[in-house]
Amino acid sequence: MRTILMDIVKVFFLFVAFTLLFYYGLRVMHAEYEHFHRYTPPEGPAVKVYSEEHSFFERIHLFFRLGE
């Protein structure tokens, strides 16, 4: 009975230790990427993807044609 109880305590402490390690690892990753600017303008030979304006009816036609 004593060995079973000791095994349960070991597993509990390992679970708590790995949970804390995972939690603080996520906090470190969050702190690292918190100040990362996701919406900076692109550098180099960037090309604008959508450059032309369509009329309302052309957009509706495209909407129904694609089935969205």
What topology does this entry show?
Elements: H1 2-33, H2 56-66
Written account of the structure:
By secondary structure, the protein is mainly alpha-helical. It has one domain. It is 63% helix and 0% strand. It has helices at residues 2-33, 56-66. Keywords: Membrane, Transmembrane, Transmembrane helix. The chain crosses the membrane at residues 7-26. This is DUF4227 domain-containing protein. InterPro entries: DUF4227.
Assess the beta-strand content as a share of residues. under 5%
Helix content: 55-70%
Q: How far is the first residue's CA from the last residue's CA? A: 64 Å
Along the chain, the helix and strand elements come as HH
Broad shape: elongated
Number of helices in the DSSP assignment: 2
Find the structural class using helix and strand composition: mainly alpha
Largest sheet: none
Q: Radius of gyration, Cα only, in angstroms?
A: 27 Å
Contiguous low-pLDDT stretches (5 residues minimum) are: none
Q: What number is the mean pLDDT?
A: 87
Protein name: DUF4227 domain-containing protein
Transmembrane segments: 7-26
Pfam families: DUF4227
Keywords: Membrane, Transmembrane, Transmembrane helix
Please provide a brief summary of the model.
The chain contains 2 helices and no strands. With 68 residues, it is mainly alpha-helical.
Please describe the structure with a list of short key phrases separated by commas or semicolons.
transmembrane helix, mainly alpha, 68 residues, DUF4227, membrane
